[in-house]
Amino acid sequence: MNKNIILCGVGGQGTILASRLIASAAMKKNLPIKTAETIGMAQRGGSVFSHLRIGEANTPLIAKGQADLIIAFEPGEAVRQLPFLREGGAVVVSKRPVMPVSAMIGKSVYDAEAMLDYLKANVKNLTIVDADKAAKELGLAKTLNVVLLGAALRSGALGLSAEDIESAMRERIPAKLLDLNLRSLSWVN
Asked: How do the domains of the chain map onto residue ranges?
């Protein structure tokens, strides 16, 4: 199996943990995996992304037009990473916007609906996740990363099974949060 996956969001959303869950699941299946992360920007308001390459690869970085899947924690980051998506690739995106610092201080415009419309017009295999509905039904917004992983699993583009991700979760998520995260993995819009 060869899969090129990009996870992107804003610092504090759980992008890095989601990336590590996928990497752990791949390693447990003895699949080669290479990763690259921007953890230096993992402060609230900074862009964060991870490149994951499952299978044989010479470099952890995914070239433009080569990603099989983009898991985006907010619409603006999905649009920013879209040049990396291959023809026919899939995007799983949270529709909840997280306004970047530049827009907050009036340096740029941020229109999440326009970004979602752009994704709808340009991505054939698009899954939009209602993060606010998930947070309300699950009782906690902090499991968005696992909700998005579940949506990616159901899209078929992740290349791993729910059991693979659940096994990685059991190793990496504290016991007191495990049940909530397992429910989050199976949450559906």
From this structure: 3-185
**Verdict on whether the full-model pTM lies above 0.85:** yes
104 pLDDT band, cuts 50/70/90, is: low
Check pLDDT > 70 for residue 106: no
Helix segments in 51-111, DSSP class H: 75-81, 101-104
Q: Is 87 left (phi over 0), alpha (psi -120 to 50) or beta?
A: beta
Residue type, 189: N
Residue whose C-alpha is closest to residue 77's, from 162, 153, 169, 148: 148
3-state secondary structure of 11: strand
Predicted confidence (pLDDT) at residue 112 exceeds the cutoff of 70 = yes
Calculate mean pLDDT across residues 137-157.
93
Q: pLDDT category, 44, cuts 50, 70, 90?
A: low
CA atoms within 13 A on the CB side of 2: 7
Regarding the domain delimited by 3-185, which CATH topology (the fold level of the hierarchy) does it fall under? Answer: Pyruvate-ferredoxin Oxidoreductase; domain 3 (3.40.920)
| Contact of 111 with 117, CB cutoff 8 Å | no
What burial letters (b/e) apply to 25-52, b meaning 16+ CB within 10 Å? bbeeeebebbbebbeeebeeeebbbbbb
- The beta strands (E) that lie in the chain are given as 3-10, 33-37, 47-54, 67-72, 85-94, 125-129
